[in-house]
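Journal club side-thread
Mid-discussion, someone asked how the predicted structure for our own chain would compare to the paper's figures. Pasting it here so we can look after the session.
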Amino acid sequence: MNERTSPLTLLRSVDWNRFWAEHITSSWLMVVWLVALTAITVNFIVNRLAAAPITTIIVLIIWIVSVAATVFSEVRHKHTPLTWWLRNNLYNSITNILITVLLVLAILGAIFGLYRYAWETASFSRIPITERRADSPERVGDNFCFQVGGIDAAVSRTEIINAQQRCFPIATQSTDVDVALIGQEPVRVCFDSLPNDPRNGETCLESSATNPQFFVVRDQFSGANWGGVAANMTTMMVFRYSRDELWRVYASAYLVILLLIPSQFVYRDSFPNKQMRRVLTLLWFLSPIIIFILLRGVRPPPFATDSFNSVIQGIFRSLFVWEPARLGNNLVNTLLVVGAAAFIIWINRFVYQWLISNHTTLSLGWKILRLLLDLLMAVFAGWAILRLYGMLSPLFRVNLHILGLAIFLGCAGGWWLWNRRFPVAEGEAGWIVAGRTVLRAGTYLSGLIVAYTVITLLGYLLGSLNRTVNGVTRPLLSYIDPSVNWGGFLLTLIISVFAIVVSFPIGLVLALGRRSQIRGIPAWLTYTVALAIMVWGLINSTPDNLAAARNSIERVIAYWPLAVPAFAVLFQRSFNGNVVAAFSTLYIEFIRGIPLIAVLFLTITLFPILLPPGIEILNTWRVLWGFALFSAAYLAENVRGGLQAIPRGQYEAADSLGLGTFDKYRLIILPQAIRIVIPALVGQFIGLFKDTTLVAIVGLLDILGVANAISAQPQWLGVRREAYLFLAVLYFAGSAIMVAYSRRLEKRMGLGER
C-alpha cells in the first residue's frame, strides 16, 4: 500500500460490514456482552473522572491514542514494535480493548486509594488519640505553637511526656476564637490544614476552666493510624521476650548477617580457597545451635558461680565425683541382659558372614539392615554394661561420666589397634569379626555418653557466666521459657527455619524409603506371624471386648484379629514385604491426607498422652516438630518426583564407577534430583512460612496473634487494618527474598537452560 495514503482513504478501504459481523454481531450473546461491558466501562470512567479527573483524562488520552495507532498500523499492515505488541496482547478484540482501560483505571484507582489511605491521610503519631495533650501555648509570628505529647494515666493526667513543639498557621483557624484568649480562658480552637477535605486535616484543642493552658488534642484523619503499629513494633517482633535480653535477638541476627555476607563470595565456583568454604559450611551447621542457646539460654548450674574456683569445683563435683547409681543390682536380671547382648552379637556376626559370602556389593537395603543390627547390638551391649555398672559401681566408686569416658577411650583405642592387627578381609575368622563388632558398638554407645558429658559441661560453663547491669549481677544467658516468651515475628522465623531445616533430611529419607527395593520379609514369615497374632487376639482380646460391647459396631470391632491376615496379604501384595517402603508410603499418605491444623491439634492434645508419666514437653517443641514432620511428607513427594526424573543411565554410570549406594546417591543422584525440584521446594517453603500463622489456634502467639491483640488494647481500639497491611508487606518481603534466592540458585545451576 502507498506510504502517502491518507488515513481517511485507509479507513474507507476497510470492509466494515465484515468487521461488524465478525466482532460484534456474530451472535446475540456477543452483542449482549459488548453492550453490558461498554455500559460498565463508561460508568466506571465517569466515576473515576469525578474522583481523579486529571489521572483519568491522561489514561483515556493514552488509551485512545494507542488504540488509534494500533488500528491504523493494522489497516496499513505495517506495525511498529509497540503497536505489534499491543495488537497481540491487549487490543486483539473489542472486549480486550474495553477490559484494558477498565483494568488500568481500576489498578490506578487502587494504588492511589492505598497511597491516600496509607500515607496522605494517615497518622504516624505513637501517642494514642485519647491520650494526646498540649500545653505552653505561644504565638510565634503568624503561627500559634503548642507543646504536644501524651500522658501516662497511671502516673499523672496533667503531666505531658515526650512533648514536641507543633505549630499551626493562624490563617488556618476554622473556629471564630480570638487567639489572644488561647491559654488565658477555656476555649476550643481548631486549625484546618485541608479546608477542602471535611474528613482530614483538622486539629482541635480544647482547654478547661481549671487549667486554661492544658489542652485535649483531637486530630481528624480518615487514613491509617500507623501509631498503633509503631508503638507495638517491638511487641510484634518479639512479643514477651524480656526487653533486658533483646541483645540475644540482635546477636542472633548479626550472626546470620555475618555468615550471609561471605557466603555471597565463598560459595561461588570461582572462589579459590576451599578450606574457607569448609569452615564457613561448618559455621552454618553450628549456627542453629548457637542461636538456640542465645534465644533459649541455659539453666543455672547446681552450684555457686560467684568465683572461678567455685565454678571449677562445682563442675568437678557434679560430673566427676561419685554419685550412687540406681540402675538395679539383681544378679539374675543382669545375667539375662548380658546373655541377650551376647546372643545379638552372635546373630550380628552370623548375618555379617552371610552377607560377605553371598554379596560382593551391599545394596542400600542391606546396609540399612546392617546398621539396624549394629544399633540393636549397641543398645543391648549398653544395657548390659549399665546393668553391670549398677552391680559393680559401689566397688569402683565412679559415676556415669567417668565410666563413659573410660569405655570410649578403651573401645576407640581397641578398635584402632584391632583394625591394625587384623585388617578387614574376606573370609576372616568369626572371633575377629565379633571382636571388631563389639569394639565398634562400645565406641558408638560410649560416644553418646561422652557427647552428653561434653554438652553438660558446656551448659555448666555457659550457665556460670554472669554480667552486671545497673549494679545488678545476673546470668549472661539466663533460661527463657519458650512457651511463654517466644512469640511475634521471632516465633514465626523460629518455626519456619526449624521446619525447613529439620524436614529436609527427613523428607530425603522418606523419598528414598518409598522408592527402596530391598528384599522384604518373606511371605511365609509374614503370614505365620499374622496367623499367630490372629489366634492370640481371638483368644485373649475378643472375648473381653465382646463382653464389654454395647452395640453392634463394638461387637464387630471385637473381631479385629480376623483383619490381621487381610492386612498381611495387602502388605505382601503392595510392598512385597518391604517394611521401609511400606512405612514411608503410609506415613507420607497419612500426613498428606490430613490438614496442618489437625496435626497441630494432635501434637498439643494427643502427644502428651503417649508420653511416659513424669515427662513433659513444652508446647513450643510439639508445634515445631509438628510443622517439621508435616512438611517432611510433602518434601518427600517433591524429592521423589526429582528422583523419578533422573534417567536410568545415571544410576548405571554411578554403578560402573564402582560407587557404593551411599556415595552414588550423595554424589550423583540426589544433587540432580534436588536441582530439578528447586522451584517446588521453594514454593513449599514459602507456603510453610505463611502457614505459621496457624499456631495462634493452638495457643501460641506469632506475629498474627500479636497483631490481633493490638486492636484489643484500650488505647488502640480499631487499629486492625493497619496491622494486617503491615503483615502483608512483611510476608511479601519474606516470600520475595526466598523467590529471589531461588531464581539466583536456578540461574547458577542452569536450571531450565541445559
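Post-session note: Strands lie at 132-140, 143-152, 156-169, 188-192, 202-207, 215-219, 466-469, 472-475.
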